[in-house]
């Protein structure tokens, strides 16, 4: 499941989602979890008029959730709730301006099924943290949340470093 809290973005959101779908080996493995603020008068209409028909046409699974506005300082609220409402084997924190660059990225993740690791993709700056952390659903079940604060990548990465669970994978974003 790709967990994606978004607000007011249109072009970048569409580009981001399409990059993931078009480069996946099997769209059956993908479930997008979208979090929109109830008062998002730009992003939601774009999603429902442009992106939703495209996802339906490509037979991609998705769930749309609405929230009272939490803002960036409570980004964890969106992601924890989305994680709670998916049954996917893997949870990936995503950003509406990120672009997938690796063909078969979903197959790379699938290779780690059954392993309790945080998967770290390559990004433009190869930050020491996993900027787009991918964790098994069991991580959420064990902790009963993904993060206690908005810096989800930092919290998950720190735990993975301490527990020696960080696995760099061959995926470029």
What does this structure look like?
- The protein is α/β, with parallel strands linked by helices.
- The chain is built from 6 helices and 7 strands, in the order βαβαβαβαββααβ.
- It has helices spanning 11-23, 43-57, 75-84, 105-110, 137-143, 152-163, and strands at residues 2-5, 31-37, 61-67, 90-93, 118-122, 134-136, 166-172.
- The strands form 2 sheets. The chain has a 5-stranded mixed β-sheet with strand order 3-2-1-4-6. A two-stranded parallel ribbon has the order 5-7.
Rg (C-alpha, Å): 15 Å
Q: DSSP helix count?
A: 6
H-E order: EHEHEHEHEEHHE
Strand order of the largest sheet: 3-2-1-4-6
Number of separate strands: 7
- What is the straight-line distance between the termini? 17 Å
Question: Residue ranges: pLDDT <50 for 5 or more in a row?
Answer: none
Determine the strand fraction and express it as a percent band. 15-25%
Overall pLDDT score: 92
**What kind of sheet is the major sheet?**
5 strands, mixed
Alpha-beta content class: alpha/beta
| Rough outline | globular
Helix content: 25-40%
Comma- or semicolon-separated keywords:
173 residues; single chain; 7 strands; two-stranded parallel sheet
Describe this structure in a few short sentences.
The protein is α/β, with parallel strands linked by helices. The chain is built from six helices and seven strands. It has helices at 11-23, 43-57, 75-84, 105-110, 137-143, 152-163, and strands at 2-5, 31-37, 61-67, 90-93, 118-122, 134-136, 166-172.
What's the helix and strand layout?
Blueprint (H helix, E strand, L loop, with lengths): L1 E4 L5 H13 L7 E7 L5 H15 L3 E7 L7 H10 L5 E4 L11 H6 L7 E5 L11 E3 H7 L8 H12 L2 E7 L1
Parallel strand pairs: 1-2, 1-4, 2-3, 5-7
Antiparallel strand pairs: 4-6
């Amino acid at each position: 499941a790709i967990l994606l809290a978004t607000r007011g973005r249109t072009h970048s959101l569409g580009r981001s989602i399409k990059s993931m779908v078009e480069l996946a080996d099997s769209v059956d493995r993908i479930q997008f979890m979208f979090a929109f603020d109830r008062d998002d008068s730009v992003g939601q209409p774009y999603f429902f008029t442009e992106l939703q028909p495209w996802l339906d046409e490509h037979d991609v699974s998705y769930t749309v959730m609405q929230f009272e506005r939490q803002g960036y300082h409570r980004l964890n609220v969106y992601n924890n709730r989305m994680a709670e409402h998916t049954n996917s084997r893997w949870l990936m924190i995503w950003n509406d301006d990120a672009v997938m660059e690796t063909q078969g990225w979903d197959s790379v993740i699938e290779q780690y099924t059954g392993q309790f690791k945080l998967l770290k993709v390559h990004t433009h700056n190869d930050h020491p943290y996993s900027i787009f952390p991918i964790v098994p659903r069991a991580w959420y079940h064990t902790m009963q949340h993904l993060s206690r604060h908005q810096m989800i990548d930092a919290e998950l990465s720190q735990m993975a470093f301490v527990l020696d669970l960080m696995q760099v994978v061959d995926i470029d974003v």
